[in-house]
Design a protein that fits this description.
Length: 155
């Protein structure tokens, strides 16, 4: 199992305290706030933890947490090809949709197609894909699922 901590944002709700530092780096009694969500994930037995933050704050988290090895876990930097999209406003929600549309159209693959991920991992079979695709046959998502198993048949 993996965990995610969202430690980004623009800091407007606690302004001006968070103007130059992430809220998750602020102290809650004797330790930084981020220790609390980290402890919950660790208590749940989760060792792979993704911390999502701003470019400005990432070095501060790395300085505080290191690579996680002190606790037997959090650090792997995501390379090119990964994107975190803020969808907290109407404009950013539209921008996220346009970004996904552009990538999908250019590359010919769906982003976050849960059925495709499950199929490729062997968690569901061709028959399950076809069952899911059938009521969606008249839209692009359903057609994508049909094409997914058709490609496997051609291999």
């Amino acid at each position: 199992m993996k965990g995610i901590i969202l430690a980004g944002g623009s800091g407007t709700r606690l302004y001006p305290v968070t103007r130059s530092i992430s809220k998750q780096l602020l102290p809650i009694y004797d330790k930084p706030m981020i220790y609390y969500p980290l402890s919950v994930l660790m208590l749940a037995g989760i060792k792979e933890i993704l911390i999502i933050s701003t470019l400005q704050d990432l070095p501060k988290f790395e300085e505080l947490l290191g690579d996680g090895s002190d606790w037997g876990v959090k650090l792997e930097l995501l390379d090119r090809g990964f994107a975190w999209l803020d969808t907290g406003t109407h404009d950013s929600l539209i921008e996220a949709g346009q970004f996904v549309q552009t990538i999908e159209h250019r590359q010919g693959y769906k982003i976050a197609c849960l059925e495709e991920i499950a199929y490729n991992n062997g968690w569901i079979d061709k028959e399950k894909i076809l069952q899911i695709a059938k009521p969606l046959a008249k839209n692009g998502y359903g057609q994508y699922l049909y094409d997914l198993v058709k490609e496997d048949d051609e291999k």
